[in-house]
Automatic annotation (TrEMBL):
Residues 114-472 form the Glycosyl hydrolase family 13 catalytic domain. InterPro entries: A-amylase/branching_C, Branching_enzy, GH, GH13_cat_dom, GlgB_N_E_set_prok, Glyco_hydro_13_N, Glyco_hydro_b, Ig-like_fold. Catalyzes the formation of the alpha-1,6-glucosidic linkages in glycogen by scission of a 1,4-alpha-linked oligosaccharide from growing alpha-1,4-glucan chains and the subsequent attachment of the oligosaccharide to the alpha-1,6 position. Pfam families: Alpha-amylase, Alpha-amylase_C, CBM_48. SUPFAM superfamilies: (Trans)glycosidases, E set domains, Glycosyl hydrolase domain. One of its GO terms (molecular function) is hydrolase activity, hydrolyzing O-glycosyl compounds. Gene3D superfamilies: Glycosidases, Golgi alpha-mannosidase II, Immunoglobulins. It catalyses: Transfers a segment of a (1->4)-alpha-D-glucan chain to a primary hydroxy group in a similar glucan chain. This is 1,4-alpha-glucan branching enzyme. The active site is at D273, E315. Keywords: Carbohydrate metabolism, Hydrolase, Transferase.
Amino acid sequence: MGATVYAGGTTFRVWAPMASRVFVSGDFNGWGTWIELGNEFNGNFSGDVAGAVKGQKYKFITRNQWGSDAWRADPRSAWQENSTGSSIIYDHGEYWWNAQQYSSPGFNEMIIYEMHVGTFHDSPGFGPGNWNSAIARLDHVRDLGANMIKVMPAYEFAGDFSWGYNAAFPFAPESAYGHPNDMKRFVDEAHMRGIGVIFDVVHNHYGPSDLPMWCFSGDCLGSGGEYFYNDWRKSTPWGDTRPDYGRPEVRAYIRDSMMNLTHSFRGDGLRWDATKYMRTQNGSDTTAIPDAWRVFRSINREINATQPWKISIAEDFGGGDFITNDATSDTSGGAGFDSQWGGDFVHAIRAAVIASNDSGRDMNSVRNAITQRYSGRHTARVIYSESHDEVANGKARVPEEIWPGNAGSWAAKKRSTLAAGVVFTSPGIPMIFQGQEFLEDGYFQDTDPVDWGKNSTYSGIRTLYRDLIRLRRNWFNNTRGLRGGNVNVHHVNNSGKVIAYHRWESGGPGDDVVIVANFSGTYFPSYNIGFPRGGMWYARFNSDWNGYSGDFGNTASIDTVAYSGAKDGLSHNASFAIGPYSLVIFSQ
């Protein structure tokens, strides 16, 4: 489907089930006489055009059943001059890949860095950032220790500045970000640094503007035509443009868009936006759209069958275990996603650190956030304290929420890094949002680039994040338990606002990890909790170290010996100092 280059020409093939005739015209014929495509009598029209070569612009002309003609961009365009311009012939075989040996990490070893290409590395006042400017900062992501980048939607959308969730051409990379080869080079460069790329995809709605598939055959069917629902199911919070999941050809369109990313662009995973608004009309189960489950199941089953190491993540916030339960077939079982965004986690952890008074911090909610899981798998949730949604839409960055206008304050630094500490030590796949690692303030906007000056100003905070990531990845082979699935929150002091939990994979020295988090402004010179085993426990991390920030207290949370004596349901106990709003990690 689309425009496929062959030696000496290009084959054009398009789905236009209600058109009477379809033509193509472009640079290859001087935009003169229309070249008619053959009717396959299955809804598709196709034809070979000798002399049509890569880089040339083209459009289709569809003639409807009443004889009216309309010029259309290709709904499967692989390259657009812009969202309202012509399609461009592109040869996916022309890019030479350099990173031939890349292997993506296991789900339990993933650390996700969420990135918006337009603002990740850009200067205010010009066009948005692009693939090449983002490549220039990939060393930063590598040095931080993140091994997966989740790219916000990068398919062609209306205008040059956008979050990307208004995709109009789900096969063509955003023209303001560069050439399709630039997008491939971004993935290639990430792979050469040991970093995988997860692409954000939007199929709960399209546009709603600049849509090439809108009324494509020339018959709108009372609304948007054959690509879209034309009844009550068409309506979404973003416009009346929900794809018709009941049509096999539309399901194929969505499937091919996904596989284009995992195959042609060598993406290492997919993050599906707002799946709740695929399976329901308005987010309520009373307005269910059962057709969407066939989309979930068939695509996830195909990924699992052909590239099972590539992760498929849903942003659902409502489907629970059904989203991450196995899809037994295309029509039964769960949705088959490997993981889903953990809304129950982020809201509880943000509330616990943003509350202005210690009395407002609920350690029971924190405990529930740490232990919650989907489908019995610890990797079935992505956990975070900041994401693009959580730092916009009336909300801001965590340091900004803690102290509006003073995100660099002691309180904002201490409590935002406390939240990050819980993210990297809880079961799940940890994720941070661009700039979080150096205390980016304000709220996310597609016209406000990341302030890289803060990378120097708050270099100690960046080091804190790096240290947490290294421990989460078992960098020094002494914290294996942080990537395991087991957790026991054995100490909950809601009056003192202290919580402690034990993490392990298989157990034993180098595996068992004990985390203590103080959510209060109180300094505890000697705090006693249970430990799973006796002997020396080494303090691998102390967020109160003044090497992270000169105004931190440098509390001597040092190695401690656990002695026999039951405490908190464990066989041994130990005492240690812990600073205010601090997190300490112990292991043997």
